[in-house]
Amino acid sequence: MFPKCFALRVKASCRVLSAWTVLNVATLMTFMVSAGLVRAQALVYTQNFDQTASGQTPDDFLVLGGRFAVEDQTLVLPGAPLDNHGAVFGPDNQGDLEIRARIRSEKKGRLYPSFGVGLYGLGGYSLKVSPAKKALELYRGRSILTEVPFDWRSAGWVNLRLAVTQDAPSAWMIVGKAWMEGSDEPLDWQIRQASSQAPTQGKASLWGQPFSGRPIEYDDLALLRPVGAEAAEATGFSLGLQTWTLRNMDFDQMVSFAKEHGIRKIQTTDKHINPRDDWDEIKRKQEILKANGLEVYTFGVAGTSTDHAFNRRLFEFARFMGIKLIIVEPRDFSIFDSLEQLVKEFDIKIAIHNHGLRSLYGNPLVVQNVIKHRDPRIGVCLDVGWITAAGFDAAKVYRDYQGRVFDMHLKDKKVEFSERQLVGISAHIGEGDANLEGLFEALRETGYHGVLALETDSPIFARQPAEFVRRAKATFQKLTQP
After folding, report:
1. Of 41, 21, 22, nearest to 33 (Cα)?
2. How many other C-beta atoms can be found within 10 angstroms of the C-beta atom of residue 342?
3. What's residue 312's pLDDT?
4. Among 109, 144, 105, residue whose Cα is nearest residue 126
5. Which structural domain, as residue segments, surrounds residue 96?
6. Same domain, yes or no, for 175 and 253?
C-alpha cells in the first residue's frame, strides 16, 4: 500500500478531473471532448469515493472477485490474492457510452500488475494496461481484439478512456487511449476497432490482477454519453479530412491514415474514389471504408460538364455511396442548369467551392448572386484559406451567406502583397492570417452543424501529412473549447 500521507497528497493534487465530477453535478450539462472527435457529451455517472467510509464499497458496486474497499478516498484492490478480480458499478449501459478512470499500481522486481476498465458487462469491451507486455489491450469478453505499445511507469497514475459508439445500424466503433499522469493526453485514439456485433448488456466495470503483490488503486470514475443527434446538430460541428491532403497516398494508405488519426468523416477526391470507376470497384472501396468505421460524407471538388449525362453519373455515384452533398466548382455558369435539375431529382445538395480571385467564385458576391436564384439545396463550400488569400474575412463571409454554407475546407494562409496582387502562402492551421477565432465564434452563435474538412494546398505539408493533421487537430480542439 502506498503511504497514507502520499496518497492524500496525490488525491489533492489530482483533483482536476474530480473537480468537475463533484461540483454542481446536477447542473453540469455538456462539454466538448478531444482527439479530433469533438462532440457534446452529458455526464451519466461519477464516483470519486469521497463519500464512502473507509473499509466500505459504494452501494452501487457489485464485487465479482477480490476485496475492493475504499481507503483514503480511493478504491483499493489489495495485493493478495494473486488472481483476476473485478467489480461492476453504476447504471445499466445503453447506447453510445464512454468510461474514464484513473488507476495506479506498482511493480515488484520483475512482477507486474494488470488493470483496466470496461463497458457493457462481463461479455462487453474492456481496455487494459498490461505492463509486463508493455501494451494497451482491447478485449471483448475474454478475447483480445487488438493491442498497441504502451510505456507504463510504476507507481504512477494512468488515465484511461474507453468509448463505444454506433456508426450505422450494424456498425460499432470501439476506441481507447491511455496516458500517464503528468503527460499530455494523446490527441488521437490509440486503439480503434470496428465491429458488426452489438454490445452485450451489463454495467461498467473495473478490473485488476495484482500479480506483483502490490495494491491497485482506482479513482475519478465517470460515464459519459454523447448528446443525441438532434442536440448535436444544434450545438456542435465536427472535424473531417479532405483527402487532397493525402494526394501522395493510395486508397488503402488513406484509409489507414484516417483511422490512425481518429478522423471518421472523409471528403474524398477522385484520387481515392473515382465516381466513374466500375461499380464493383466502388462497392469494394465502400465496404473497406465501412469496415474501418469511416464515412465518406461528401465528394469533391467534383468535375462537372455541360453534358447532362456526365453530371448525372456523379449524382448516381453519390446516391450509391449514401452521400448527401457534392462539392463543385463549374467552369461555366451555364452548368448550373444541369446541376439544379439533378439536385431536385436526387435530393442531393451541391456546394460551390471557392479558389482565389482569379477563379469564377473567388469573390463571395458572385457566389451569392448564383445561389440566390437557385434551389435552396445549392449552397457554398467555404474554403477558409482561399477566402483569406482573396482578402476577405472568413467570419464575415460565413455570416453573409446566411445559412447557405453547407461545408468548409479548413485551411490557413499567410497573405502577402506581391506584384500588385495578394498572394496566399500555405500555413499550418492557426498560424496564418485567417480569422479562425471569429469564424468559430460565428459557427457557435449560428448553430452550424456541418463538417470542417482539414485540407492543405502545400506540397510540403502533403509530403508530411501526419504533422499537418496533428497540429491542425490541436488547433481545432483549442478553438472549440467552450
Report:
1. 41
2. 20
3. 98
4. 144
5. 4-227
6. no
- In CATH, what number is assigned to the domain containing residue 84? 2.60.120.560
- Does 110 lie in the same domain as 244? no
Q: What is the number of domains present in the chain?
A: 2
Place of cell 496518497: 7
Q: Specify whether 199 is located in the same domain as 299.
A: no
The predicted pLDDT at position 169 comes to 64
Q: Using alpha carbons, select from 328, 393, 335 the residue that is nearest to residue 361.
A: 328
Q: Cell digits for 207?
A: 478490473
pLDDT of 238: 87
All three cell numbers of 219, joined, read 479513482
Residue 140: what residue type?
Answer: R
Which CATH number do you get for residue 382? 3.20.20.150
pLDDT of res. 1:
43
The C-alpha cell that represents 154 in the structure block: 510504476
Residue keyed to cell 456523379: 314
In the chain, which residues have pLDDT < 50?
1-39, 227-235
Whether pTM > 0.70 for this model: the answer is no
C-alpha pair distances (Å), 150 with each of 109, 131, 257, 374, 405: 19, 8, 20, 55, 42
Classify burial at 458, counting beta carbons within 10 Å of its beta carbon; exposed 0-12, middle 13-18, buried 19 or more: middle
Of 212, 205, 215, 203, nearest to 67 by C-alpha is 215
